[in-house]
Amino acid sequence: MSEYKYATLAVHAGQHPDPLTGSVNVPLYLSSTFELTGIGTDRGWDYSRAGNPTRDRLEFALAKLEGGHSGHAFTSGMAAISALVAMLKAGDHLICSKDVYGGTARLFNQIVSGYGIEVEYVDTSDTASVEKAIKPNTKMIHVETPSNPRMVLSDIAAIAKLAHARGGIEVSVDNTFMSPCLQSPLALGADIVMHSTTKYLNGHSDGIGGALIGSTEEHKQRFLLVQKAAGGILSPFECFLVLRGIKTMPLRIRQHEENGRAVAEYLSQHKKVLKINYPGLKSHPQYELAARQQKGFGSMLSMDLGSQENCAKFLAALKIFLNAESLGGVESLASHSATTTHASVSAEERAQMGITEGMIRLSVGIEDKEDLIADLDQALAAF
Length: 383
Ligand SMILES: Cc1ncc(COP(=O)(O)O)c(C=O)c1O
Description:
By secondary structure, the protein is of the alpha/beta class. It has 13 helices and twelve strands. The protein has a seven-stranded mixed beta sheet, sandwiched between helices. A five-stranded mixed beta sheet has the order 8-9-12-11-10, with helices on one face. Helix 1 (6-12) runs antiparallel to helix 9, helix 2 (53-66) packs parallel to helix 9 (236-268) and helix 11 (308-317) crosses helix 13. The termini are far apart. The relative contact order is 0.13.
């Protein structure tokens, strides 16, 4: 399979016809349990928490798309991150990007720290700061790049190099904002890739899911154990939806990307937009890194409209963009970061992270780009 190009893999990896019926689509195996062939023998499956034929197909596809050893599907992106940190033990030190999805910080601060795991937030866009933060008990560096919502990049190859030089430190990358189409963390040297499949992989805003893709047999055994023991597995129906989404992902991403660039160019010229964060603009301080590390610039961006009041007027005036959280679906979304994705982060921490009260995050969808720009134009005139 891996000899094929990406768009072919997206349609066919894990999505071969059902051997029994020839069904072109992966069948939904809605069975909690499977008949055993004897004592201690089965046909490959015994109980759906441990493994399910529909989930197997998705997990195979995810591993292929990320160039990994094995894929593992979880009930949400957060469940995938929980499974990831289940690799750690009390006394371990976890370095995490400072500019990270608010839900990840909530999990780490309110749950993971309680297990005796020391979580330290570091500006991973500065590799030297990562190096300085490494301690003898550092076991994992979790990087979100580009980050949410400021679109700050971290140099995956450089961080992986220094982590591996120390030995015993694994690098995991939240690849949600890029999708497997636009960034390949494992090829850059990372050890584990994490996704919220809720976003570009599903692509249609109709299911919550998450994934981990490991690069070694040890990861596979570990994540299989977490799936079986902790049980946060993705249901067969949700797996089916993600498999369906994956088939059109390269096509969707192409349009997302074209629209994202067009919207960013437009906003960068608008006088009411005080700041714009989009790695595809030459004015982005890490444009060079984005061009080198990513296969495209994506369709996520954030901008500063000056105040929460301006944001409220802007959001209320939008006609096509929906005022909603989330990202990566076919429809364009706009959200006020401080009161949505980062509401669980304190005002002081938000200020430190550079998430202003005037920040709006856009997930640019696949509608007609001229319509999208016209919508933004009329909404910006509302304040
Ligand atoms: C970058 C990133 N990682 C993880 C998550 C969590 O994923 P989920 O909502 O599927 O649990 C999100 C959700 O918005 C996200 O944006």
